[in-house]
Amino acid sequence: MEFFLVSLLNGISYGLLLFMLTSGLTIVFSLMGVLNFAHASFYMLGAYFAYQTSRWLGFWPALAIAPLLVGAVGMAVERFGLRTAHRFGHVAELLFTFGLAYLIEEAVHLVWGRSSLDYRVPADLEGTLFTIYGTAYPVFRGFMLLVALAMLVSIWMTLTRTRVGMVIQASLTHPQMVEALGHNVPRVFTLVFGGGAALAGLAGVIGGAAFVTEPGMAATVGPMVFVIVVVGGMGSLGGAFIASLAIGIIQTFSVALDYSFADLLARLGFAHAPGGALGEFMKLTIAQAAPVIPYLLMVLMLIFRPKGLMGTRAD
């Protein structure tokens, strides 16, 4: 029971961090139709900006300043680069954001180097939040849960309960009508893209302190972001939330399980013949196969439900 509860809580906190990272990409794709390959790079920038700001001002100012800086970078990218590429179609957008990811990584190498940084959990959030069967649950994990849930509620309220949200959604479906009402549609798209980048930056502030801040962090989580978007449904914020939690929990449990596939079959009462390629495969443990499981889930989703768990638009 201790293993189950601790792994479940860790899986939920990891899943919510994935949602924090994925939500910005989901909103940008839903409202603008842009699949941003550089989204994970904004996550990395959030961690690096938070590290630098926390050295000067402390963690709490960095929690607010770093996402704003990343959002400003995102707006500049949309205004002076992506808007031009958009005129030439989705292929040009993909190529532009793909190249942008490499540019951001090289810029990080030039400014901060290639080694990991000493960006840690602040002293205010160290310690134990509660204890489960003798296992301490960190305060920072609880803080991650709180920030992710607050972000989810804020996004949902903004898009569905405010005039700003209505203008944003109407700008995609009826841009000429929105312009006739006096709104600047290109500026709306710039703000949306910057907002999506800021959400990724916020995830970087939290994730960089919880895990590690180094130049390869974008490449580590980048593929997982697109797995979540596909499994949840392209453009569905609710689907991204469910998929993030599911993948976070599945991966957390998978990494902790040291049973081989042969052991699982034996427990279910099935025997298998040793030897051969299948025999070698059956010797693999679930922990060894854990990195592949999310991608296997994505493949199955594309086969049996290509649209993902939920719709194609943000809720």
Written account of the structure:
The model has no long low-confidence stretch (mean pLDDT 85). A two-stranded antiparallel sheet has the order 1-2. Helix 3 (59-86) packs across helix 8. With 315 residues, the chain is mainly α. The chain starts with a helix and ends in an 11-residue tail after the last helix. The protein has a domain at 2-216. It is globular and about 70 Å long. It has helices at residues 2-32, 39-57, 59-86, 90-112, 139-161, 163-173, 175-180, 185-210, 217-232, 237-256, 261-267, 276-282, 286-289, 293-304; strands at 128-132, 135-138. The protein is built from 14 helices and two strands, in the order H-H-H-H-E-E-H-H-H-H-H-H-H-H-H-H.
What's the structural blueprint in terms of helices and strands?
Elements: H1 2-32, H2 39-57, H3 59-86, H4 90-112, E1 128-132, E2 135-138, H5 139-161, H6 163-173, H7 175-180, H8 185-210, H9 217-232, H10 237-256, H11 261-267, H12 276-282, H13 286-289, H14 293-304
Antiparallel strand pairs: 1-2
Helix pairs in contact: 1-5, 1-8, 1-9, 1-10, 2-3, 2-4, 2-8, 2-9, 3-4, 3-8, 5-6, 9-10, 9-14
Q: Any descriptors?
A:
74% helix; two-stranded antiparallel ribbon; 14 helices; 315 residues; mainly alpha; 3% strand
